[in-house]
Structure formats: structure tokens, C-alpha cells
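Q: I'm writing up a methods section and want to include an example of the input and output format. Could you take the sequence below and give the corresponding predicted C-alpha cells, formatted cleanly so I can copy it straight into the document?
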Amino acid sequence: MKIAFYGSSLVSSYWNGAATYYRGLLKALSQRGYDIVFYEPDVYDRQKHRDIEAPGWCGVVVYEPTPHALMK
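A: Here is the clean output for your methods example:
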């Protein structure tokens, strides 16, 4: 099964306390056979403050936080 997950950030906990929860939840789902892509907006300089690179157990797509980008 494929899962598209939208959240504040998976790769950065900068101004984002939920990152560690996302990582644990999505890694556990991946270990159970789910194919996951995490979509995160490019905001608050989080990409400059990454804690981890894109993990092997989840794809990461960074998008511009505009209405047009959300429609893609």
C-alpha cells in the first residue's frame, strides 16, 4: 500500500517538534511493507537545518508553499 503523508518536516526538527514522531511512525509503517512519500513545505529555513538526509525508508518531496504547488 502507498501512503502520501503531508507534514511540517520529516528531515528537520528545527521549529518542528513533530519530526521525531513522524520518523518513528513512518519508519514503523515502512518496516511493515508500506511505500511512503512525505511531502513537506520549504518554510522557516528548515532545509538549511536538516537533522537527517532523506531516509531510505521514506521518500521526501520538498515543495514551495504556494496554492499552485499544492495542486500538483
